[in-house]
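Re: 2'-monophosphoadenosine-5'-diphosphate structure - here you go.
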Amino acid sequence: MSSRFAVIGNPIEHSKSPIIHHAFATQMGIEVDYGRVLSPLDRFVETVQTMRLEGYRGANVTVPFKLEAFNLANQLTERAHDAGAVNTLVFYENGIAGDNTDGIGLVRDIQQNLKIDIKDKRVLLIGAGGAAEGVLHPVLEQQPKLLVITNRTLDKALNMVKKVEDKESLRFVSVNAHAFEDIASHSFDIVINATSSGLSDSELPLPPSIFAQQALAYDMMYGRETPFIRFAKRHGAGLVADGLGMLVEQAAEAFYLWHGVMPKTAPVIASLRS
Ligand code: ATR
């Protein structure tokens, strides 16, 4: 009998997660039934409880429910705790475990797929919302030389820095927050756009000098060329990437949690791109 999983979100109809998980399952010779569940905005907890009664074994959680999933889980991994959000749930008879695979997904896409080491690099993280919080610790664990967080609302970036400063194991990395206009004198080897500005096709008011020679410009959005990617191409980034690889990598880590085997991601990324 195949085991049941789904991605929960609102909206959810465009999610590629079912395609990705079924591709992994075929590759590994496992039977998996992975669907999409549209949860009403005010009914996330009830939606999860119903799924448990229906025999689902776990779920991925996407916008806008990652914080509610964090609050619902009665057991959290350290990385879910660090992210303050949950994107993967495992249902047990006696409770729900919550994990966050987004950060490791980004790190693997940059390091294994794009073959760029984060260690000793100067990294700029743009954004201070849920997406940025979700990747901050895993990026810092790779020991960049410097990480600057910049955000339209500077206070949110300053709060992220403060949280990191409270964490003993990350004290050795230099982490700062600056307003967009105050990063003009810096250049970075890796620039990650974790804002949702691409959704509205908005330009970010970034100084054009931020890209060091051969810099990677990474947009966590996927599916179309964002103004950030166009800006990066115009202003000297050596390599640009969208978030499709991250999407597949975070799915692979969730697949591993549920099934105990790690699928190959490269063929799935290639097939989604084609
Ligand atoms: P997500 O879960 O996608 O991170 P979020 O928590 O609402 O969503 O955060 C959205 C992020 O994108 C924030 O950093 C937001 O900046 P503010 O904190 O100033 O709101 C950023 N953002 C969204 N649209 C933007 C725009 N047009 N220009 C600059 N930043 C933008």
